[in-house]
Every structure is written in C-alpha cells, then in structure tokens.
Amino acid sequence: MLKVISVLGVAGTLLLSAPLLAEPTKENTLTIKGQFEFASLDPTRRGYVFQRMQVLETLVNVDSQGNLTPGLASKWEVSEDGKAWTFTLQPDVKFHDGSSLDAAAVVNSLNIARAKPGLMQGAPITGIEVLDPQRIQVNLANPYSPLGAIMANYSTAILAPKAFDADANVVSVIGTGPFTAYEIAMPHKLVVERFADYWGKKASIEYASYLTGHRAESRVLQVRSGEGDIVFGLDAASVPALRMLPQVNILRSDLPRVLSIKLNLAHPMLASKLSREALSLAINRQGIASAVLRSPESATAQLLPSYMSDWHIGDTSAEQDLKRAESLLLSEGWQKNSDGWMEKAGQPFELTLITYADRPELVTVATALQDQWKRIGVKLNVNVTNSSAIPSGHQDGSLEVALIARNYGTIADPLGVLIKDFGNSSGGDWGSMNWSKPAIQASLGQLVQQNDTAKYRQQAQQIAKAIYEDKPLIAIAHYVQHTAVQKEVEGFRFDPYERSYYLNEIKWNR
Amino acid sequence: MHLIKTTDLAVYAGNVELLQPLSLTLNKGERLTILGQTGSGKSLLAQAIMGNLSESLHCEGNVELFGKSRSLSERKALWGRQLTLLPQEPWNALSPLMTARNQLKETYRLVRGLAESAARTRTEEDLNQFELQAGADKRVDQLSGGMAQRVAITCAMAGGAQVLLADEPTKGLDISRRDHVVGQLKAQAADGVLLTITHDVAVARQTGGRVMVMKDGVLLEEGLAEDVLSTPQHPYTRALISADPAKWWQPPRQVFPEDSEALISARQLTVGRGDQALVSGLNFTVHPGEVVGVVGDSGCGKSTLGDTLLGLIPPHSGLVDRQKGISAHHWQKLYQDPTAAVSHAVPLNVLLTDLVQLHNLDATSVPALMARLGLSETLLQRTASEVSGGELQRFCLLRILLLKPVFLFADEPTSRLDPVTTREVSQLLVDLAREQGCAVMLVSHDPMLIEKRCDRVIQLSA
Amino acid sequence: MRERTLMNARGLGLLLLTVLCVYSFGTSFLFAGDGNSQNLNHILSIPNAEFLLGTDHFGRNMWLRLADALQLSLFLALACVLTSVVTGVILGVLAATRGGWIDRLIDMLVTLIMALPGLVLVMIFASIAPGSLLVLYIAIALIQWVEYFRLTRAVIQRVDTSPAVESSRLMGFGLWYLFRRHYWPVLAPQLLTLAAFGAANAVLMMASLGFVYVGIQPPTAELGQMIVELFPYYQEAPWLLAQPLLALALLVLAFHLCGRRGADAPD
Amino acid sequence: MTQLLFKRLLQLLGVAWGVSTLTFLLMRSLPGDMAYRIAAGRYGMDAVDTTSADLVRAELGLDQGPFRAYLQWFSDLLTGNLGNSLVSGMPVVDELWHMLSHSFYLAMAGVVLSMLIAVPLGVATAWWGGWFDRLMLTLSTLMRALPVFVTGLLVIILFALELQWFPVAGFGSVSHLVLPAIALGLSLAAVSNRVVHNEARKVMQSPFFEFARTKGLSNWQVLYRHGVRNLAVPVVAFMGIQLIMLVEGVVMIESLFSWPGVGHGLAHAIFARDIPVIQGAALMMGILFVLLNTAVDIACYCLDPRGGRLQ
Questions:
Q1: Residue A4: what pLDDT?
Q2: Kindly report the CA angle at C126 between C151 and C149, in degrees rounded to 5?
Q3: Which among D50, D87, D94 has the least Cβ separation from residue A391?
Q4: Is A248 part of a structural domain of the chain?
Q5: How far apart are CA C185 and CA A305, in angstroms?
Q6: Looking at the complex, does the CB of residue B79 fall below 8 Å from at least one CB of chain D?
Q7: Residues 6 or more apart from A280 whose CB is under 8 A from it?
Q8: pLDDT by residue (tens digit) across B143-158?
Q9: HSE-up of A390 (CA within 13 Å, CB side)?
Q10: Average pLDDT, chain B
C-alpha cells in the first residue's frame, strides 16, 4: 500500500510536468522540520500536517486575529432561526487529479468526515445537502454559532471523490490546495509539489518537504547547520543561543495555548477554594516564565490570552505570595509537621501530578512547580506518562492534579472549546473536574445563541471572572512558539491558529 | 670454512645467566647433539644461534654463519634459505587451518621461488620420499604426532637450508616413530649441518657425530658420541645414561595362578569413546598386588580401557566385573600430566587435609609416607604451579596411598618426566603393589620400561 | 612489563572509583542543603564559592545534584551486577553440571531475552511502574544475567572435563567442593572483568533511558537525564553540560579500568 | 550441517513464538487504558478525549479479553497476516517493511564501518604496539565510556555543523545515512578494535607464526597467508556477540537522527500501546536474530572446521 502511494506521487509528477522531469533537489525544495508525526492519510486523524502544507483546504479560513475568512466557500449565510447554514463555493476550483470542485464532491467529503471521530461530532448537525452545483446547506438541530469555526478545522478538509475507497477510507490525498502530495513516507516525511492550476495565489517555490524531528536537540542542530529552512517547535532553552546565529531569524509568536494545572475538585484537599487559592499564590509564575520558558512576558493567571478580549478580565495578578499562601492553608486547619509538610488529622498534604513528555517544557515546569509547592509544605509527586492519562484519569476519577497544555484556538472562536471544557458539572477531559457552577454552565450554553455582541461580552466576562476566582484550572503561562527561518527564505508568516504555513506566499531571496 | 662458529655465546634474562658462554664450530657434513634434562637451557642455544630469542632475553658473544659473523637482521635474512629451525611441538608449529601439502608447496613457491608447476612436482617428490602422502590433504589436528613432525621437517628443509637446528625432535613420540624421525633428519641434513637438541640418550646414540652434555646451562662433557655414551666421564652423564630403562635391574616377576583371588576381570570386553569402538575381545583378570603392563601405540585405546575399568565410561560390549564390597574411592587413577590433575588454587597441604577430612583418614601415617616419597613439609606449603612435574606426581601418589587403594590405573605416569625421575616413580609404583597388595596397571609407550617393571603385559594392537 | 601496566591500570581504576564514591557519598554528609531546591532567579551561574559547580537551569546546586546522580548510578550498578552475577553463576553451574532438559530450558529463555533488544525490554518494564527505580533495576539485571550465565556455563563445561575434576570425583568429593576448588578459581578472574563491564553497561543503560524520557521521574537526579536536560545550554553554559558528561565518562572509565586483565575482555 | 539447520529452524519458530507472546503479555500488563493511548497516538496528544477513546475501543474491539485477542492474533499469524497497526490502521507488514529496511541499512552500514575501522586498527596496534597501542587503548576506552547518543551528538556537531558535509537528520538519500552510520560504527569499533587487537596479538605470538617466519616467509607473507585466516575465526565469532550491542545503539541513534528504523518505531509503539506492531517487530527481530546467529555459526565453521561438528 505504502509503495503504491509513492508510485502514485511519482506518476503525478510525470503527468503534470511532463516536459521538464523536475526532481526535488536541495535548491528547489523548501525544507520544513516539524515536531509531530502524521499517523494516517485521513485528515480526521491528525490531518493538520496536510492542511499546514497546503495540500488540503477547508471551506472557511481564519486570519491572524481569529476572524473567519472565505476559503473554498466564497460566502455563507445563517438562517434567522440559526438552524441552517448555506455555503456558496468558489467558482472553477480544480482538484489535484484534474476533476473540478462541485457541491456534490464537498457534501460527499463532509459527510464521510462527519461519520468519523472529530470536531463535527461536537456540533448538533442533522444533515448536509446539495442545494445546487455551487451551493451546499448544513442543517442543525439548534443554533450553534461555532459551526463556522469548525468548518475551518483540518478534520473538515475537502477531498476529491477518488480520494476514498469503497468503505470511505482515504487511499490517496487528493485536495485542492496550492501543493500536491509528491511523496508520502508515513509517519515521518511528506514532500509536496507546486500545483500549477491552483484557483488562488499560486506558489512560487516548486517543492516543500516536511520531516518529523522528534528530538528537540536534532531540530536545533538542523537550524544551526542551515539544513532546515523553517524549523518549528524550538525548545525555549536553546532560543537565546540560536538568536546569535547570523543567517537565521528567530520568530517569536504567541499562541492561544495555555500551560495550566487541572485540579480534581472532588479531592478532599482541593475541595476548598482557599486551598486552591493558596496553591495558586505559591506558584512563581514570573520565575517559571523567564527561567524555564525563557519568555518573561508569557506569565499569566488567566486561561485565555488578551487578544481574545471578550474572555480576558482586567484586574488579575500573577504575583507569588508565599506568606499569604501559607496563612491561607493554616486558616484551613493545616499544621506544618516535623519534616516541613503540611498535615491535618495525620494526613499529609500530598498530591500526585501527572503530565506527559511529548511536550518537553511540561516536564521542566512540573519540576519547578514541585519545588515551589514544597515551600508551603505541599508534597507533590510528579509522574511523567502519556497525554492520554489525563482524559482517562478524568473519566475514572483517579486524577488528582495534572499539568496540561490546552489550545483554545483549535477552533477560531474559543466558545466551542470552553463549552466542551466547562459546559457541564462533571467538567471536560481537558477542562474542569467536578466543578459544579449551574449558573455559569447555563449561561455558557446560552452564549451559543447570543448574537448581541454587548450582551455576549458581558456574559463572557462574567464566566471568565468565575473561572479565575474559583480556579478549577490554575493558569501558569501562555505558550510562546519559537520558529527559526533561514534568511534566504522570504515572506514567511506564522499562523497563531497553526492552520497553515502559507507556503504559497514564500519566495527565495538568493 | 665453518658453517657455524660461535664464540662465548651466552644468554641472559636481565642479569641472570641462563646459558654459560659456549663456543662451538660445525663444518659441512658434521652432526652435533646437545644432551641434557628438560629445562637445562638447551633450546636457548638453538634460539640464540637462530636469532629468535623472546624479547625478555638477550644474548652475548658472536655467531658466525657460513664464515661471516652475522648480526640479528642478517641472520633473519638467512631464515629458511640457509638456516632453519625445527621447533619443539611440531603439531603447534604447522599452520592449523592449512593442509600439509599446501604448507609444503608454499615454502617451495615463496622461499625457493619456484614456479607453480615446479613447486608442485617437488612437493609430490618429498611427500613420496618421506611417506607423507597419507596425511598430505589433512589438517594438522588430523595428523598423528609422528606424521606432523615429519611434515614439519620437510617444510623446514624445503627452503634449501644447509644448517638445520632440531629442538627436541622426538619429544612425545612413540619409540617406533622416533627412529623414523631421526632417520629423516640425518638424510635431509646429509650434505649440510645438523644440530640436534634432545633429552633422549637413544636419539644421541642414533644420530652419532659429536655430543655435548649440559645441565642448568653449563657444559659438562663433550666428545664423540660413541666414546661419551659408552664410557661417560662426568657423574651426571653416567646417571643420565643409566636412567635409560634398558640399563635398569630386572626384578623377579611374580606369577599369579589362575584360580587365586580375582580383583577385577574383563569378559569379551570392547572399549571405545562415543560411537567409535577402539579395542574389542579383551579377556583378562587382574589379581591383588599384581603389576600388569599395557602397551600399544598412542591413540590405540589404552586410557579408554582404563576409564572403562574404573567405570568412568560404559563398556561398548562385554562385562567388567569387580570384586564386590569395595567402596568406590579405593579404585584410583594416576594421570599422565600431574599439573592438569591437581587444583592450582590452594597449597598442596590444604588439598591433603581436604582428603583427610573427607574420609577422616588417620593422618599419623602421612609423615612416613612423605619421607618414603621424598616430599618435604616445606614443599607442601607451595601450590601445584610452584613445584616440578616429578614432585607433583609423587604428591598425587601420596594422596592415592592415603586412600589405601585396591586398584590403581597409571596412565603413562612418567612420559612427561625426565629419565631419572621416571625410574624413581615407576619403582615406587611397584613397591606400592607389593606392600599394600594393590593391583597396578601401568600404561606406557616404552616397551623397555614395561619389560623391567611389570609381572605380565597386555599388548593392545591399533 | 606487562604485569606492571596491568596493576596500575586496575589501581587507577580503583582510585578513580574511590574518588567518585568519596565525592558522592561524602557530599551528602558534609554539605548542607538539598540538591533539589531551586532558585529560579539564579540559574546557569558560573562555579563560585557558594556553588562549587555552579547552578543548573533551575538554579539548583550542581555540586549536590551531581553527587546524588553519582550515588544513584553507583548504587544501581552495584545492585544490578550483584544480582546478575549471583543468578548467572547459579544457573550456569546448574545448566553445566545437570545438563539435559534444564540446560535446554534455560538456553531457550536466554535466546528469548537476547532476541529482544535489551533497551526495548527495559522500556516495557519501565512503563509497567513508571518512575520506580526497583523495576528499572530488575529490568537491567534481567538482561545482564545472561552474560554471566553463558560465561559460567562455558568455563564449567571446559573445566569439568579436566583430569583434576575427574580425579576429585574419583576421590569422592561433592559438587560444592568441586565448585570451591576447581570451578571458582578459574571463573573468578573472568567474572570480575565481566562484572566491571557489566557495571559500566548498567550505568550507560540507565543514561540511555534518560535520553528517551523513560523511567526517571523528577526530581531524581540521573546522569543521562542531566545530559539531555543540559544539552540545549551547551553554548550558553558549556561547563554545565560538561559536568554530567565527565562524571559519566569517569565512572564508566573507572569500571573499565578495574575490569582490565591482560587482554581487554570483549563484553 | 543439515542437522544444524533443522535444529536452528526449530529454534527460530520457538523464538519467534516466544518473543511475540512475551511482548504480548508484557504489553497487556502495562497500566493505563489502551484505548486512550491508541487514541492519543491517532488524534494527537491535544485532541485525545473520552469520546475518541470510546470510538477506538469500539472500532478495535479492545473490550474482548486478552486471551481472545491473543488467539485472534495467533490465527492471523498462521495465515501470515500480522494484523493492522492500531494507530495508523495500515497493515503491520508494510510498516515493519519500511522500518526494518531502514534499520537494516543503518545496521549494515554501521557494522561494515566498524569493521573497516576495527580490523586495520586492531592489527596495526598488535603489530607495532608501544605508544600507538596505548594511545588507541585510551581512545577506545574513552569512546566506550560515552553513551551512544553523546557520540551521535559529537558526530553531528563535527560533521554537520562545523564541516557542513552531511545533513543533520532525516532520511531518503545516502547522504542521510552517513552520519548515523559513523556514530554507530564508532561506538561498535571502540569495542571490536580491542578484540581484534587481542586476537591478532595471540596469532602473532603463536608458534605457527614463528615457524612460518623461520621457514623463510616474510612478515607480510605470513600475515597474509596464515595470520588473516586464523584471525578471522574469533573476529567473526565476536560479530555474533556484537549483534546484541548493535541493536542497543540503533534505538538511540535512530531517535537522535530521526531515522525511521525499527528501534525508534518500537519506542513509539510502546508509548502508544500499538501491540500488533510491537508483536510484529519482536517477531521479525527474533527471526533476524536466529538467522544472523546461524549465519555467524556457519561462517565460523567454514573458517575453522576444527570446532568439531556444529551443534
């Protein structure tokens, strides 16, 4: 099967650029080094690599501020009752296999994606149908404003009919993007080639290759050796050293992803608000941000970044105050025992924090946290396992504390993710746990139908304040992504929503 | 012009003198034999002349070859072409993975510089002349000791050397092989010079020419072979010659009537190792106190017979029936190489006390036995690696005597020992049999030794 | 001449080992403070009077942390070697002397363990109880006993056929005596060499585990993990990366030198 | 010889079955819910949640008891189908083919390189000895004192950064294979060159070497005609032992150089609890191990038939 794909890729090249037998060489290929593998051809499973390498496109795109912009759909309207969304397709768009894009192809691709696990299953979609060759309609059980943002997510990427086999498995990645899949060596390597009849802005570079580099060390070395034209996921520790390299620019970009501590409020020691307040106060956010994450201004006490203004409340402090934290614990009846741990009725204040090594910075922040909580007598054992331990710990209630990196920007409008994380009393796998606040949970539900921006903002502020004060999740710092771009590459811009590398805007300046 | 002329040639290890300054001359057609016990510095002389002493030793004095004194590197250039050395263990000296024929042909082609076809014919000639065709296409480990020695000689001489130094050419060979090897040596070195180094008086007698007797690196006596060997002047030479079994006193043989008490007897016995039968149809009975000799060529199954009688390996067919009621540790065996038969980890007296404690023997008889065997108390403080082969063999005998054995199978106990010790140890065995009524089976490849020591002989044919 | 170089090679090895032991075990007594206490506004500092080896990327005292890491490595190496030597020798003697089905059974088990890459086996074990050093020690010992088993069996099979053993058996001595007088004296020197290289491999194996983020949970200090954590700072603070690297190299070097006997034994 | 082959075939089947069953048991005894782990493998660490885990559990039938899953796997095995990877859904055979071929290239390149370094160095140090031998001894001891990934990093810094001759990581062209092969080759050669040294010294001090010299052959002729073959036997035997060390290094180097080999793949499969892939890889490695060992034994027998009959 694998060999078939690469053969197809090669055949594709011959077909399209028959006269000049172009081959990816060091000169005409833009090399990209990423952090994550792509485990299958099916975009519903980690398809973000095909979207970022601009092989696959979605109906709707997102600009850097998070506003929805036209993608394969030139425009879309929502019916008054908010239960029907109609999308009008861009005219004369070609698939990579030459067939043209029409409503039938789009509906076929979306319905297949809907049957598989993915974001669309979160939305109350009752059906997707063809209105006419250029327009499709999505019917909803009740109004759901984040649907537009879902249509911008990689899991809803549009594939040509021939991309699927009889039982709807993706056998070859035939999309509409400015690049075609030239060679796929799962799960590490993807080489894409310029698609001559792209409907939008045609790419100027001929080839681009994406290689997964698991080790942060090897990615850093690839920057130094000039082998990686664009290298993502540079670990914070090596950034100061890389800035000194003359031939490389280091881009610093804020992500709507936040490093936070998830607490199980059903746990006896975490039930009381004051204890949680104490734990938050004990955290030296400034120290972690500057010493561990090497980006001093990333320290924050709030889950959502400032540029998501509706959800950002003003008066929050991220200062460390050990004395107050300790006094809060003492007021809760904890006493320091002989070897310095807080104790109540013979029970030491001991918690187990789980985190995962896929993101190296999580382990280092956990180590820092362990030491800081020790200062107020809280014994924190750190257990580095796999990211799946957090949702499974949430389900079977065994999770006490977890250090997670939650991305509130997977869908442009954070509401969808917030509903999932805080929308009900049992909480969300990556959200709160056993935090029952009926009023907040109810208003979150209504926001989906709230079209009046002033009311929307007022309710959002109220919810954000409740989360900040009750602290089901304690924020530590928001994510800063460092990307290295060789000086000979021009026109690269970083997408905070990590949807596209904008390869078609890149030019060589040699 | 002398082929070999050494003046005050001596060998030192650091400042310890291993070989006293020695001057000798050898002309074309002459033969010289250096005679002495093992470890008396004889082989150092050959290596000093040849120029391949080990790094830790150095030699003084001058070596003249073919009339011109040669430095070390000049002598190395003569190796094979003018001057050649036959080393001690030929089965280690031949390349282990190459057939005998190729090793011979290689010498003709590379040393003599003959073309391929000429080298092949010369090789065939040599193989026929010295009856080596049987082992020509075999590897060294598949050849018998004698065959390996003869192949080594032809290889050494194939380079056309005139001077042949032979170091212990007959060591470990049977009597019949020995005469064959000496004959070949004399033939090949007929028109050059043969310097032989040996501990065997018979080899010296057969080689003829001049003889030099040495002990601990010192030259004691020198002269023509006939004179020195028939009328030795120096007492050491006399002891050396009289140690030859042919010269031993012949004690009266004891006769054991058929019906007297049988200790162990073999009925239609066939012995062999693994699936290969070596000797079949054996019928004999051994009586307490009797000394029975077992003679046969090496590899004909002598030690296999011993192991079968002792019950270490099962007989192929037939029956070994032993007198009942005798506990196992009374059936004992004496080994050919004493150093391999004793643990080197602890001093000898510890081994002795182990044995005494195991069977709680009365230790009172030990001092008397030790005196009888010529073992001193200080000797027992040392470990097995710090004593000579002869002393170690006597220690093994001591342990066996303590166990008051009824049957002792001695598997060539003296082949590794020098002549003087061989006579003492073999005499001790006979005394053991007579005094303790212990049956002794003595194995040897030297028929003369068996003749002089045993009441009767079992001849094992190959 | 050969004897002298052998002696001082082993002497040097022992000296190096004692220096490392004195440093690692002595430090926890002589110096107050705890290797894990952090000071985030005092990171990557140059060795000075207060912090003899500087501070790492958490501001922790490298002098104490390196001592803890060495203690862990030394302790683990010792435990792994002891366990694998004892298991390997006992099973080796059993297989060589009893032979028959025991030999085949153990042989099959050995082939199974050798067929799987050691590191993968350790990774699986490490994920059974993440972070527990006991499981790590068991996994490494489980892989290493195979070497001692094969050596013991080979030596005993060779020595068993020697005249000395046959003669002792004829004289009525039992298996334990044979082991004490005949097998062990031949086995001991080779075992010592293998044990030295085994200790070195145990330390290297644990360091490799740190490389793949398995087994060692914060805040435990482990040489391999420290190398991985400090590598990104190799330009900014090279003296930090040099310390665990040097400590690991010296420790493994010491073991190799102790293991030196005449010929350099292939492990 | 045929008796050996038959015995080794039996061993092969035994090892293949034993190893894959051992991995199955071990993997099944790991804590944590498999469905979640596989979901994390499939959908990425951020998007894994209970709904995706439940879907995975339903799709793959993970609720069935381990015994039935094992039987299912075993019956597939008999028909030569190794099943599909739980994470990517691709047939295990294809994934393994991709991983094993890359690991094979790396291993072969590493071994050949290590021999090219170790044999000449070993023979030279045995021949000249003195300071050159001591220098090489300290160098190889130092090289052995470093973990493999440190050697890898040093090789990258030297060849890829300073000299810019080869790419740092990745795969696809021969130039990608060079640095990992050098790192692996160096770590293997550090051990094997001392083994070659000891064996060469033993051959050079043996009586047959001396006799060939006194027979009239020059140093070079003796080394070439007698030394090489007698040296080859212990060296080839040692290569059999080194196989085990080789795989250790391969796992490290593959993850450092992002080389898509089986060692690296196995590490990920363990984290993602992709049991069929692990079983398949263990099976292949078991078979490879027995085949390579048999090949080494046969080679040793051909070089030196003295070892009696092959067992």
A1: 45
A2: 10
A3: D50
A4: no
A5: 73
A6: yes
A7: A301, A471, A474
A8: 877 788 888 888 888 8
A9: 31
A10: 85
| Residues B226 and B364 grouped into a single domain | no
- Name the phi and psi angles at D272, rounded to 5: -90, 5
| Residue range D42-62, pLDDT digits in tens | 777 777 778 778 888 887 777
pLDDT of A73 over the 80 cut: yes
Subunits with 3+ C-beta pairs closer than 8 A to A:
C, D
> C246 CA to chain A: closest CA distance, Å?
20
pLDDT of residue A1: 43
Residue B131 at interface with chain D, using a CB cutoff of 8 Å: no
pLDDT at A21: 56
Q: Which of B210, B200, B203 is nearest to B185 (CA)?
A: B203
Q: Do C167 and B354 touch (CB under 8 A)?
A: no
Across the range D11-28, mean pLDDT stands at 86
Measured CA to CA, the distance from residue B186 to residue B192 in angstroms comes to: 10
Q: How far apart are CA A249 and CA B128, in angstroms?
A: 86
Query: How many structural domains compose chain B?
Result: 2
Which domains are delineated in chain C? 68-258 (1.10.3720.10)
What lies within 8 Å, CB to CB, of B323 at 6+ separation is: B261, B262, B263, B264, B406
Domain contains B259 = no
Chain B CB within 8 Å of residue D308 CB: no
Expressed as residue numbers, the domain containing B379 is 264-459
> What radius of gyration do chain B's Cα atoms show?
25
Q: Do C233 and A237 touch (CB under 8 A)?
A: yes
Amino acid at A122: G
Contact A292 C219 (CB under 8 A): no
pTM for this predicted structure: 0.82
Query: C130–A385: do the CB atoms touch at under 8 Å?
Result: yes
Asked if residue B39 is part of any domain, the answer here is: yes
At B88, which helix (H) or strand (E)?
none
Same domain? For B189 and B315 the reply is: no
Residues 242-261, chain C, touching D (beta carbon < 8 A): 245, 248-253, 256-257
Instruction: Tell me: pLDDT of A16 over 50.
Output: no
Distance CA A276, CA A285 (A): 15
B257 lies in some domain: no
Mutation site for C-interface testing, chosen from B56, B343, B361 by largest number of C Cβ within 10 Å: B343
Select from D32, D50, D172 the Cβ nearest to the Cβ of A429: D50
- CATH number of the structural domain spanning residue A264: 3.10.105.10
Contacting subunits of C (3+ beta carbon pairs below 8 A): A, B, D
Same domain, A299 and A447: yes
Q: C54 — alpha (psi -120 to 50), left (phi > 0) or beta?
A: left
CA distance A429 to D135: 60
> Shortest CA distance to A293 belongs to which of A369, A223, A384, A344?
A369
Residues in B closer than 8 angstroms to D216, CB to CB, are 79-81, 84, 107, 110-111, 159, 161
Do B236 and B273 fall into the same domain?
Answer: no
Q: What is the dihedral of CA C28, C32, C35, C38, to 10 degrees?
A: 180
Q: Could you report the per-residue pLDDT of C99-128, keeping only the tens digit for each?
A: 788 888 998 899 888 888 788 888 888 888
Strand partners, A504: none
Contact of chains A and B by CB distance (3 or more pairs under 8 angstroms): no
Q: CA B349, CA B376: separation in Å to the nearest integer?
A: 11
Q: How far apart are CA A226 and CA A211, in angstroms?
A: 15
**Which residue, among D29, D280, D309, D89, has the nearest Cα to A38 in the 3D structure?**
D89
**Segments of chain C with pLDDT less than 70:** 1-7, 215, 261-267
Residue appearing with tokens 């979901």: D39
Q: Average per-residue pLDDT in chain A? A: 86
D248 closest CB neighbour out of C119, C200, C256:
C119
